[in-house]
Here is the input.
Amino acid sequence: MKHVILFFSSNAGLGYAPVASGTFGTLMGIPLYWLLARLEQQEFVLAWVFILLLSFWSAHRAGEIYGVVDDGRIVIDELIGYLTAIAFVPFSWPSAIVAFLLFRLFDIVKLWPANWFDSNVKNGVGVVLDDVVAGIYAWLSLYALMSFFPDFF
Here is the structure.
């Protein structure tokens, strides 16, 4: 079971990148975005909730295994954060890339309440929720950019 937990929490090993593991972990979101963008909204929501619950569980259990709540190898939180950033956005390469950049920006900056979750909730839920909040900020920014520059997306 330990290997299954570490497989999911590291996004199939991307979390083991020697540098910028969060950025590498977020990359898993792009092919998943391509697949999930084909779903109806209700199906997307079900898939998102499943991945969210998997993220809570695997991030928490991996933290116990590593002995560090938010170990750098745990990057499934980046995946659910990125999937939050692209929720209900039709797939295009510009939207995939801009969402990626916006999500990484907001994940690194950690505006409130992301910074609160990061500092105060010391378990898998806290590890994941700061990225979901960053994903919401990225989603709002992406939609704003899409409305100002519709021909780009």
Q: What stands out?
A: Residues 87 and 139 are 7 Å apart (CA to CA). Residues 2-148 form one domain. The longest helix spans residues 41-66.
